[in-house]
Design goal:
Strand order of the largest sheet: 3-2-1-4-5-6
Number of helices: 12
Strand content: 15-25%
Bound molecules: guanosine-5'-monophosphate, manganese (II) ion
Number of strands: 12
Shape: globular
Helix content: 25-40%
Largest sheet: 6 strands, parallel
């Protein structure tokens, strides 16, 4: 990976215009990484544009400069300008860039900074990919000095948000010494962990609480209580006045049952597509299960999409989860 960090530094040094983007339905690690990198590259005198396929979720609108992220409209014309360098963060699958994909693919050089398990043939000319890192923001924290970027309080707040998001505020199994070390240093630099916890996790709109109510009503246990599933039909979103953003974290709520090792939340925020979020405890590898259905993610947190009815999606995934439980 070292030679890729050197290559990234050279690409940045040689670029005037740089495009930064992350995945569709961005989370705290995605937005934190985009904003930290944008601020750092701007401090180096670069002309930086941050684009996104989807809007910045409400719970991340406390981050410095979040409004500078340009959301690409559905009917946006193809790229007019070609950036010298494009950097995709927290994603190593071009399709997951959504509407940002053509803009990044048009750049003269494409770099990837990510912590997801890469496919056999990841995109990009430069790849700083470390699946062992708890967050993309942790990778950025570690390589900023190599890139010649000073860590300001604003950058520290963005990076800590990414690490805190992807470790569930330092509760998940990926919370390792290096993440805690980074967090300690970022707080010393001026990051505010209390604000992050409050904004990202604690405060919720009523629509999200109403959606949670429906999800808990639909919860079912399988395999002697070791698997929890629930669903949110499109009607449930309408009744709660909710959007997909309000579904964030519900999969963790149904996974709280003491006996549960794997939880899966099936949802239809827009009619016709079933999005599934899967979580597990311990060694149960739910990313392998999701890959069987064209999705992916991490060992303990993964997802996939079905173009079927809700019933068919549950009927397809549940046996694979039961198999994962039995064979691990
Ligand atoms: P979430 O359930 O929060 O949407 O996603 C959990 C994890 O799985 C995230 O790290 C996300 O990047 C990954 N993930 C979710 N859906 C997909 C998918 O359709 N394809 C891939 N490759 N990864 C996914
Ligand atoms: Mn991440």
């Amino acid at each position: 990976m070292l030679e890729h960090i050197t290559a990234l530094k050279q690409a940045i040094d040689g670029a005037k215009s740089i495009l930064v983007a992350s995945h569709q339905h961005p989370d705290g690690d995605a937005i934190g990484a985009v904003l930290a990198l944008k601020a750092g590259l701007e401090a180096l005198g670069k002309q930086v544009t941050a684009v996104s396929s989807d809007r910045v979720p409400n719970n991340l609108r406390f981050l410095p400069d979040w409004e500078s992220i340009q959301v690409i409209a559905e009917d946006a014309p193809p790229p007019q300008q070609v950036a010298d360098l494009a950097i995709m963060v927290d994603v190593s699958v071009v399709a997951r860039l959504g509407r940002a994909a053509p803009f990044l693919e048009a750049a003269k050089t494409l770099a990837v900074v990510d912590h997801h398990q890469p496919s056999d043939d990841p995109p990009g000319d430069i790849r700083v990919i470390d699946p062992k890192a708890s967050a993309t923001c942790l990778i950025l924290y570690l390589i900023l000095p190599e890139l010649g970027i000073d860590n300001t309080p604003a950058i520290a707040q963005c990076l800590l948000t990414g690490i805190a998001t992807d470790t569930g505020s330092f509760r998940f199994g990926n919370t390792d010494p290096i993440s805690l070390d980074a967090a300690s240093h970022l707080v010393a630099l001026g990051a505010n962990l209390t604000q992050i916890n409050e904004e990202v996790w604690e405060k919720k709109p009523l629509s999200a609480i109403n959606l949670l109510r429906a999800a808990l009503n639909h919860m079912e246990l399988h395999s002697s209580g070791q698997i929890a599933t629930s669903y949110l039909a499109n009607d449930d979103y309408a009744a709660a006045g909710a959007t997909d953003e309000d579904s964030e974290g519900i999969v963790n709520e149904i996974g709280r049952v003491r006996t549960v090792m794997i939880s899966a939340m099936f949802r239809e925020p827009k009619p016709g597509k079933i999005r599934v979020s899967v979580r597990s405890r311990g060694a149960y590898d739910v990313s392998a299960v999701c890959r069987l259905f064209g999705g992916g993610g991490h060992v303990n947190a993964a997802g996939c999409t079905f173009d079927t009815s809700m019933e068919e999606a549950i009927a397809a995934l549940l046996p694979a989860l039961e198999e994962c439980l039995a064979s691990s």
